[in-house]
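Two proteins, back to back. First:
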Amino acid sequence: SECTSQDKIAVLRAMSHCFYLSAVQMRTVLGNFSLWTDRQEVFAAFFLRITDIQNAKLFRVRLESQAEMVELQERLGYVTFFPFLQPEKASFNLDLSFWDQRLCTSILVGLAMR
């Protein structure tokens, strides 16, 4: 459309409290933005409104690099962004001087001891 991506993001943010998305819908929405900064804004607006978070792998593939993943972890919080349901393919570089990253370490140790 003729709207800029910033205009689209502003509208999505303004309306984000009115609806929820499935993982497939989140993937589709993220695919409409070519710039990483735009995808990051949309991701932050809708991440906690995904109804089937167990299918997170469907939209996480839109994150093109580990650097993008780290940026989102830092923005949303490491515990919030932790892949609870499918941690086997995730990589972690945690700084234990931060509380939420220590909590992630505790979660990983707990999962490893099962």
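And the second protein:
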Amino acid sequence: VRMVALQQSSDVSQFYNDTGICQAIAKSEAFDLLTMFVIVVNSIWIAIDADYNNAGVLTEAHWTFQVMEIALSVFFLFEWIVRFGAFRRKWDCLRDRWFCFDSLMLGLTLFETWVVLIVISASAWYFKDA
């Protein structure tokens, strides 16, 4: 099994649909370049956030930190949806190790940005009247 896995091509586009908007976007060089650019921006933003954001939670951060966190999470969700939508058989996404890694990272990002934000906001609203 290990040898077969190592011999498989790293080009997952062979598992993509032949038609459709998602596969067209996912196969485009412009999409790859945009995604790499956003990853670099995200890396730089993590450093800026670590140095200048003193808030304990996103809701207490300056609006620029909130906007950037939300914008980056929305882009990465868009990228994931496009790539997932490009697969002919959705189970084939599990053959793409980068997609699996991205799925884990996206899940953590969405949890941190949206779930925690909603829970904190709901808690503040609920306990405000208590």
